[in-house]
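Give me the fold.
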Amino acid sequence: MNNKFQKLQNTIENLGKQGICLAFSSGIDSTLLLYLCRDKNLHAVTFSSIFQPEEETALTKQLCKRYNIKHKILELNPLDDESIKNNPKDRCYHCKKMFFEQIKAYAAANNLENIFDGTNYDDLKEYRPGLKALKELNIISPFAEHKITKAEIRLYAKECGIDIFDKPSTPCLATRFPYGTLLEASKIKQVKTGENILKNNGFLQNRLRMHGDVARIEIEKDKFAELLKNSDKITQELKSAGFHYLTLDLEGFRSGSMDR
């Protein structure tokens, strides 16, 4: 595995001379890239929109300050684009294209020739229509190119002393709604609130998927008993946040369940 990271470091050395603009979300993938590129001509750009939890944006600021990286936050409203708001099956393509066109403009204005993102090798095996947009815009995904998996990223991040090496993934909040469901700001904010309620009750790895008035809760299977034990309290808190019908998904937590 270390051979993969040595080759990755060689790539960073070569491209770093021309400047690197990193799409930085504070997830462990982009955080490890931030760390590995920290002594290069590097700018980190974070997208801030209704699709990203505010605490993730706050963490990007902390990490860039820790590593002394120039940081730019781009405010975007994807719901202004009908091809995103209507949530078609290729929504991720349109969203990535909107976001990364903005980062390309920033990179050009700052003479940064290479744009990195944190796509890893595992992502290539999933349904990711956004990858088409990255290819069209010539975005470089170093982990994917060097066949580095999520597990390898977490392990190497731990070896590098990065304290968020085991941070749960926090994908775009639009993934909580079935394709074809109109994306509304109020519903997205409600999901944010609901997932924070679950986190505050000890369920750090969770998803709250919306099917009309029904909220489908995904947590790890070994946490089922704990949720049921505290179901009265959690139900009351979620209903206070506007959720009407609550279900526990017996398949447990899994990424991308709407795609299946």
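The chain has two domains: 2-159, 184-259.
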